[in-house]
């Protein structure tokens, strides 16, 4: 379900950008629909809403801020370049995670992990040089997204609470929504009011426009929620393999659906990058497993 919902989200999201190129507003809609879903769930007790106080809010706010920034910049990238290329750039996220772990948290990263990241950097570089849809807006925003999600991981460790993952994600979504409203109004508000909405409705009709936005928001929330619930229940190695395979699925399906033409070098670079992520994830999971055995 995690893979299926993620693939559907990416395909529908890109189709919307093809006739409505406003990623800040679409990102906002993703969160609006997700928050509405959470509020309905709370109202019927599925799940029961966990209480929150000022201390928990302080812990969750940095996580939500990074989540919001990473979400918006991911969507700006998806709107600017091919979905397959955006996901190739986002394969660099483990590199930023390792750098943050070593230089920000002060925790030593083993040489084997650094070595496994070399294919990722090489592969992404190869893919970028000959990618037909390459532009700096897509590339830079994908990189900002990587940094934001890295910091989200760091702050998430500090924000570990007794609250279940469904409630945590609900609160993070609400805070992220509030954070994302101002930039959407500032960067896209005037264009949307003058011609953005009217142009989209003229192209596809009001019913399809509204239904597409609601559906993409629903798929966005559900894939994130199911991913959170699933990864809470599996071993780190399963988590690592799952993340890599998910990216392969999304890249593969996006190429088939949108008929993106990629050069041989881009294909080889993407494959090398994904293989590097797989190797990094495997080594990291094994290291964590050994640490747990020693502590046990």
UniProtKB/TrEMBL annotation:
Keyword Zinc: no
Location relative to the cell: Plastid, Chloroplast membrane
Protein's name according to its UniProt entry: Sugar phosphate transporter domain-containing protein
UniProt source species: Sorghum bicolor (Sorghum)
Chloroplast as UniProt keyword: yes
Taxonomy of the source species: Eukaryota, Viridiplantae, Streptophyta, Embryophyta, Tracheophyta
Residue spans crossing the bilayer: 20-40, 52-70, 136-155, 167-186, 206-223, 244-260, 266-283
One GO MF term: organophosphate ester transmembrane transporter activity
Membrane disposition: Multi-pass membrane protein
Record's keyword terms, sorted: Chloroplast, Membrane, Plastid, Transit peptide, Transmembrane, Transmembrane helix, Transport
Residues in Sugar phosphate transporter domain copies: 1-281
GO annotations of cellular component type: chloroplast membrane
Gene Ontology biological process: monocarboxylic acid transport
SUPFAM superfamilies: Multidrug resistance efflux transporter EmrE (SSF103481)
């Amino acid at each position: 379900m995690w893979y299926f919902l993620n693939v559907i989200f990416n395909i529908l999201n890109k189709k919307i950008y093809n006739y409505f190129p406003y990623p800040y507003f679409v990102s906002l809609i993703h969160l609006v629909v997700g928050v509405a879903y959470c509020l309905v769930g709370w109202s019927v007790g599925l799940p029961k809403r966990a209480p929150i106080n000022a201390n928990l809010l302080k812990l969750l706010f940095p996580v939500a801020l990074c989540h919001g920034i990473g979400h918006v910049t991911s969507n700006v990238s998806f709107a600017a370049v091919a979905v397959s290329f955006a996901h190739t750039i986002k394969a660099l996220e483990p590199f930023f995670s390792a750098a943050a772990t070593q230089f920000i948290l002060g925790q030593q990263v083993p040489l084997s992990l650094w070595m496994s990241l070399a294919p990722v950097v090489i592969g992404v570089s190869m893919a970028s040089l000959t990618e037909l849809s390459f532009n700096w807006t897509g590339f830079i925003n994908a990189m900002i997204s990587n940094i934001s999600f890295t910091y989200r991981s760091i702050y998430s460790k500090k924000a570990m609470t007794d609250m279940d993952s469904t409630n945590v994600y609900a609160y993070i979504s609400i805070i992220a929504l509030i954070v994302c409203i101002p930039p959407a109004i500032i960067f896209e508000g005037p264009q949307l009011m003058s011609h953005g909405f009217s142009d989209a409705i003229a192209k596809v009709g009001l019913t399809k426009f509204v239904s597409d936005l609601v559906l993409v928001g629903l798929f966005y929330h559900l894939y994130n929620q199911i991913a959170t619930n699933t990864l809470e229940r599996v071993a780190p190695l399963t988590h690592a393999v799952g993340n890599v395979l998910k990216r392969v699925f999304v890249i593969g399906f996006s190429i088939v659906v949108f008929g993106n033409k990629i050069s041989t070098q881009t294909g080889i670079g993407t494959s090398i990058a994904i293989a590097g992520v797989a190797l990094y994830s495997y080594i990291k999971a094994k290291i964590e497993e050994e640490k747990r055995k020693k502590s046990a």
